[in-house]
C-alpha cells in the first residue's frame, strides 16, 4: 500500500486544480485527479507523471453519487486513507445576468455542483480523511462570496460591476459548509478552510482573470499543508483572513 500522503482534487484536470496538483506533487504528495471526463483526467495524470509526480486519475463527477462512491471505494482499497481533499470543482453559469433575469434552473444547476456536489464529496470522503493523522480539507471559494465585501463600495465586485446571484451566493454557501463542518470536527486533527484564489485566469471566467494559476494555487497549497496548530473554519487568501 502506498505510504506517501494522498490528495484528491476534484476538477483537478485543469486550471487551479491542476496547478495545485502540480505544486503538491512536487512536495511529495500522491495526486488523485478527480475528473468528470476520464480521458482528460488521464491526460492530466500523465502530464504530472512526466514531471516525476506520482499521479493517477479517478472518474469523479461531483453531481453523480455513483462516481463519488466508486472513487471513495477505490481510494479506500488502494490507499486506506485520504490525507487531503481539495474541493475544487465548480461552475459559473450566470452569464453576466442580473439576479432578476436569472432562470431558476441556472440557480439550481449552480448549487448542484458548487454546493451539493461539494457536500456529497466531503461526506463520502470524510471517513477516509478521519483515518489520516492530520487530514486537511480545502474548499475553493471566492472573494465574491464575502457578504461584507459585497456591500463595500470599494470592493472588486463593485469596481468590476459583478453581481452574479447564482455563482456568488453558491460560494457564500461553500463558506457556510466550511464553518459548520469545522464545528463538527473541532475536536479532531482535521482542518477545513475556504480558499479564495483571487481573480485567476481559468476556463471558469473565459481566462479574463488577471492572476496566473500559479498565484491562484498558492493559498490552496498553503491550506492543504497546514501544520497541526494551523487554523480551521476560516476564509483565506494569500494575504490572510477574508471577512465573511
What structural keywords apply?
alpha/beta; 244 residues; globular; 8 strands; 8 helices; eight-stranded mixed β-sheet
How many beta-strand elements?
8
Strand numbers in spatial order across the main sheet = 3-2-1-4-5-6-7-8
- Measured on Cα atoms, how large is the radius of gyration? 17 Å
Structural class: alpha/beta
User: SSE string, helix = H, strand = E?
Assistant: EHEHEHEHEHHHEHEE
Q: Give the strand content.
A: 5-15%
**Envelope shape:** globular
Question: Which runs of at least 5 residues are low in confidence (pLDDT < 50)?
Answer: none
Task: Give a structural overview.
The chain has helices at 15-26, 38-49, 65-79, 104-129, 147-150, 156-159, 165-184, 213-224, and strands at 6-10, 30-35, 55-59, 84-87, 136-140, 191-195, 235-237, 240-241. An eight-stranded mixed beta sheet has the order 3-2-1-4-5-6-7-8, with helices on both faces. A hairpin with a 2-residue loop joins strand 7 and strand 8. It is 43% helix and 14% strand. It is α/β, with parallel strands linked by helices. The protein is globular, with a radius of gyration of 17 Å. Helix 1 packs across helix 8, helix 3 packs parallel to helix 4 (104-129) and helix 4 packs parallel to helix 7 (165-184). It is built from eight helices and eight strands. The mean pLDDT is 93. Belongs to the short-chain dehydrogenases/reductases (SDR) family. Keywords: NADP, Oxidoreductase.
Amino acid at each position: 500500500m502506498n505510504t506517501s500522503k494522498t490528495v484528491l482534487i476534484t476538477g483537478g484536470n485543469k486550471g487551479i486544480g491542476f496547478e495545485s496538483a502540480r505544486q503538491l506533487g512536487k512536495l511529495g504528495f500522491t495526486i488523485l485527479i478527480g475528473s468528470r471526463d476520464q480521458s482528460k483526467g488521464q491526460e492530466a495524470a500523465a502530464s504530472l507523471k512526466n514531471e516525476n509526480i506520482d499521479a493517477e486519475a479517478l472518474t469523479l463527477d461531483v453531481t453523480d453519487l455513483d462516481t463519488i462512491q466508486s472513487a471513495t471505494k477505490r481510494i479506500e482499497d488502494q490507499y486506506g486513507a485520504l490525507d487531503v481533499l481539495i474541493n475544487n470543482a465548480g461552475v459559473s453559469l450566470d452569464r453576466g445576468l442580473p439576479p432578476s433575469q436569472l432562470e431558476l434552473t441556472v440557480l439550481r444547476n449552480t448549487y448542484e455542483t458548487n454546493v451539493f456536489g461539494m457536500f456529497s464529496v466531503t461526506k463520502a470522503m470524510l471517513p477516509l480523511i478521519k483515518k489520516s493523522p492530520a487530514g486537511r480539507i480545502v474548499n475553493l471559494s471566492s472573494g465574491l462570496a464575502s457578504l461584507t465585501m459585497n456591500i463595500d463600495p470599494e470592493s472588486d465586485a463593485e469596481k468590476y460591476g459583478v453581481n452574479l446571484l447564482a455563482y456568488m451566493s453558491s460560494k457564500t454557501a461553500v463558506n457556510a459548509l466550511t464553518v459548520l463542518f469545522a464545528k463538527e470536527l473541532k475536536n479532531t486533527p482535521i482542518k477545513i478552510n475556504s480558499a479564495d484564489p483571487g481573480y485567476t485566469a481559468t476556463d471558469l471566467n473565459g481566462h479574463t482573470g488577471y492572476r496566473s494559476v500559479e498565484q491562484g494555487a498558492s493559498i490552496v497549497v498553503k491550506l492543504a499543508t497546514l501544520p497541526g496548530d494551523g487554523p480551521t473554519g476560516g476564509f483565506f487568501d494569500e494575504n490572510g483572513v477574508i471577512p465573511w
